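Translate sequence into C-alpha cells.
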Amino acid sequence: MDAVDDLSDAIDVTRDLLVPVRPWLWIKLAIVVLFVAGAGLGSVVPADPGVLTGPDEPLPQEPTDEEFVTEPALEELPIEELVVIGLIIAVVLVGLWLVFRLLSAIAEFVFIESLRSGDVHIRRYSRANLGRGLRLFVFRLGVAFLAALPVFGLLAAVFVTGDSPEAVLGSLLSIGLLGLVLGIIYGIVMRFTSEFVAPIMLLESRGVVSAWRRFFPTLAGNTGEYVVYVLLVWILQLVLNLAAGLMTLVGVLLVVIPFGILVLVLVIFLAEIGLILALPIGLVALVAVLLIIGLVQMPIRTYFQYYALLILGDTNPDLDLIPEQREAVRDGGDDPSTPPDTLDGRTEDDEDDRGW
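Result follows.
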C-alpha cells in the first residue's frame, strides 16, 4: 500500500533535502514554516499597570474620603467611549489575524515550491503565488464560515425559543456533537486542501475549486489509500508533536533564562535605563524563541508535506510534483537538490491561473 510504503520514502526525501545541513536553507524554511503552521504572535499585556510602574507617592496608611471619591473614576467613563475603544481593539486584532492568514496562504505555495526545487526563494516564490495565495485564503474563510454557520444558527435558535432547561441542555449536547463532527470534517478538508489541492494549484495553474475537481477523481479512486493516510498522519502527529513540544520547551528555556538574567541585571543596576535597554533585548529574545519553534517544526512539516506529495504522485502520476526526488530515493537517480530553478516551466511572473 502506497500510504504505508511512502512513510519511509518521505524520510529519505526529507533527509536528502536537509542533510548535509545548510544553515541558511534551514533558517529560511523555518521562517516559512512559522507561517504555514499557523504560528502567531501573542500579545503581551501587563495584568496591572500599577505593578510595573508603581505609585508616584507613598500610599497613606488608611483610606481617606478622597480615595473613595476618586477610586471609581474609570467607572464614570461614558459607555459609548468604552464601546468605541473595544470595537477599535477588535477591528485591529481581526485585521492582524486576517493579514497573517493571507500570508500563511501564500507561504503554503512558497513551502511547496521550495521542497520541489530543493532551494528557498521567499520573495520570488511569494510574488509568483500572490494570486493563488489570495484564492486559498478566501476559500479557507468560506469553508470556515460554512462549517460554523449551522452551529451558531442552532445555538441562537435554542436560546430564542425559550424552552425548558432540560430541553435546552439536550439541544446543547446535540449541537456540541454536531460541532464535533463538523470540526473533524473541516479539519480533513483543510488538510487535503493544503497537502494535495494546493500542489495541484501550483502544478497546473488552477484555482482552488478547479484543483479540487482535478483531485477528486484521484481521491475517489483511491479512497483506501487516503483513509490510511489520514489515520497514519493523526498518529504520527500525536507522537511527533509530543517530542517536538519537549524539544521546543528545552530550547525556549535555554533562550529565556539567560535573556531573563540579563534583563534583571540591567534593571537592578541601571533602573530606568535598564528598562529601556530591556526592550530591544526582549525583542531579540522573542525572535530567537520564534526561530527555535520554526527550526523544531520545520523537519516535521517538511516530512509530512513530502509524504503527501509522494502519495499524490503514486495515486496519480500526472500529479507528481517531485519525480526527481522520488526517483532518487527509489531508483538511485540523480541528486534531486539541483532541479531547474523554474516554476513548473513558467517564468516567475506567469500568473495564468484557471480561475476558481
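Note: The longest helix spans residues 223-270.
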